[in-house]
Amino acid sequence: MKNLYKASRIIALALLVVNTAYAQSDSTNNTSSKSIIIDDDKSFKIVKDNKDDDDKLPRAFGGITFTRIDWGFSRIMDDGAFSLSQDNQFLEYKKASNFGFDIAQFGVRTSDNFKTYISAGFEWNYLRLKENIIFNEDSSPISYEPSDIAYSKNVFTTTYMRLPITLEWRSNKNRKGERVKVAFGAMTGVLLKGTQRLKSKENGKQKFKDNYSLASFQYGPFIRLGYDDFGIFAKYYMNDFFEKSPAQKNLNNLAFGITLGF
């Protein structure tokens, strides 16, 4: 996974180089040089003559990044319980997973050990449903129709733009130059779309997109614990999974797993 993380960073850096190539080309009348580096706060930035002001604190940081890659499991909680009520049995799932990452950030480092920042990225939640159902589009509250087809795949996906606000502490460097890290804050997000993907012998692959009465805005606390560039995370979304759906009130999402690039 460490190689996967490094490869992801290299890919993101390559894309940034392509988009900012003009900033690295020197004219014949300009003797100064520019280069792109990854700073200590995992932001890609352009520096002149390899000079940087990272030693000056407090300092602001920010820019394009590719980090805090969350990959793990999710569980639907029904009024605080992991078992679903009768009204929510249609959401019974074989597996549920969560994936997300940040692509931009801006914050302030107040000392070598503390920083606070807001970031932006994307997050997906996948429910591999047990029941052979098709969700109705343009329907509020959420509704569905039973299907006579036995689907080999029935995946319900939510896609959010995530906007977490984070406070982060890190220890002093050890002999290897690595640190213990703790981060916590509020994970917020704006709904981009809902998707249902179906696969069957009768109809092959099908894909439907709609908001499916999903919460337009999600929010809740999160925590990350890590060492060097690796860690674990837990996120609990306090908002109802669906909006304007009284039968699904107090249906929340819990996610936990590993973080790369922490």
UniProtKB/TrEMBL annotation:
Residues 104-238 form the Outer membrane protein beta-barrel domain. Residues 1-23 form the signal peptide. The keyword Signal applies. The keyword Signal applies. Pfam families: OMP_b-brl_2 (PF13568). Keywords: Signal. It comes from the Bacteria. This is Outer membrane protein beta-barrel domain-containing protein. It comes from Sphingobacterium alimentarium.
